[in-house]
Amino acid sequence: MWDFLTWLLWKLLIWALPAIIFILIAIWVVKLTTSFFKWLRSGTIALFDRVIENSRLGISYVGDSLALDTLSHREKVASELDESAKKCEESGDPESLKNLKRAAQCPDSFKRSYALDALGRLGNRAADTVTIQVKGLASSDPFVREAAAHALYRMRRQAAPARSALVEVLRKRRSEGTARYAVLALEQIGGLTEEDLRVLHTIALANNSYAAREAAELFERLTGRSPHSSDPAAPNGHLPAPG
Amino acid sequence: MLTSLLKLTVFLLRLALLVFLIGYLPIYCGYVKLGLALLAVSFPVWKVLFYAVRPLGPNWRKARSGSCYTYWHHEFTLVFKGGTTTANLEEVYDRLRKFDDFDGKTNRLARKRGKMVRNARYIYFESQGFFGLLSALINPPLVPVRLWSHRGNRLVVADTADGHMLKGQRRFQAKADGHGGIVVVTEAYDRPRDVFNRLGLRLMGPDIQSEIWTSYFNNIRLYYASRATSTEVAPIRTPRVGLPATSSSSVKWVPLPKYPGEEV
């Protein structure tokens, strides 16, 4: 009897050990497989999203490049973008914001400027679109440039990261409406450097400047004196720090 | 010299295209594609060329006897919730002067951009917005108007400039109505520049033109929506009228020969 019990115990021990090891290995394999599939799924989803997004971008790019700039096309584009802007404003729909951002970088001039304008009206909800607006400022299309500058003006202090791009616009495009919106946007952003004030001073005194009046008013407000003043230190000397 | 050469090039290009399209379209169907392809290919070239050929001034000087104009009138009234003040009136006038509300919102057809040309202020509109894509055959893609304003009358005056499909003047004015409201009004006397534009205007112009100014005014109403109540924009169009007798010596219904400055 005792022998039988000892035999049974040994047998159990002998089989239990590999069984436990097997179970542990099995658990580890299942865990590994699960995490592998989880990783695979998340990777695929991210990739899938990227593939979908890029396909959409590609399709809209081709579509925008081929689209004829007709009245019906414009109405269609505007109503789609209005719809997106409305959704974005009411519920902060991220897909609509993505749609507007995509449109604000597309090659269709009307669509792009309309989207930039719509983003400019969204306020806080489109705070992260300043880089898109800055790209618009650098566009070769004057309508897009003006729409981007106007949008930055509407974005108020959120447009602060665009300060240097706006000053650059003033340097290059003083005869355009873009320059006027750039001055107005700079006024709201504030924190202008001496170099920025020098550019404003030049714009205020320049011939053929669309923004002369606004630049002169802003310069006067910041420095406390007219850009036309005959103060010898004014034009080329040391300008006082902004007030 | 360069400007004249560019103008001549553009003119010849357009003439060749017109002859090609008009002469060959009905006979050889295969040329339709070629003609349209040429149009599509040369369109950006025209755009660049016309952008380079800047307007030199209004495209008309005085009213010709016997010329018939179309009279346009759009207006609406703003009543500010806190009462209408001179500051409100000045603000509305300033927005009119700067065309800040033209783009976007309810205006789904046309766009504008500002440009100084030889110290005169111009606003360029896209002709697609007014007469459609075919307008590009006879008009530049961007049509300019010369702008100046009169602060005393709170009046903004826009004279059609070189390249515009119309000849005439449009005015925008903000005035107190005497009952606590501000009337915002735009009036225009204009006529097509030539026979082609007359045809284009007859076919598809008036409605679109009226729609653009209505939507511009609707944009202004939307801007003030939180601060004021407003009436609907009422458009009136009266064809075939003469230019009005010039009642005001300072602001006549003809372009001023010398640009008076951005604001007088």
Brief characterization of the structure:
Chain A is mainly α and 243 residues long. Chain A has helices at residues 2-66, 71-91, 94-103, 109-121, 130-137, 142-154, 163-172, 177-189, 194-205, 212-223. The model of chain A is unreliable at 232-243 (pLDDT under 50).
Explained architecture:
The complex is a heterodimer of chains A (243) and B (264). With 243 residues, chain A is an all-alpha fold. Helices cover 73% and strands 0% of the residues of chain A. Chain A contains ten helices and no strands. Chain A has helices spanning 2-66, 71-91, 94-103, 109-121, 130-137, 142-154, 163-172, 177-189, 194-205, 212-223. The relative contact order of chain A is 0.06. By secondary structure, chain B is α+β, with helices and mostly antiparallel strands. Chain B has two domains: 2-52; 69-241, Alpha-D-Glucose-1,6-Bisphosphate, Chain A, domain 4 (2-Layer Sandwich), CATH 3.30.530. Helix content of chain B is 35%, strand content 28%. Chain B has helices spanning 2-24, 30-52, 86-98, 127-131, 195-223; strands at residues 69-80, 112-117, 120-126, 142-150, 155-160, 166-176, 182-192, 228-230, 234-241. The longest helix of chain B has 29 residues, at 195-223. Chain B is globular. The model of chain B has no long low-confidence stretch (mean pLDDT 81).
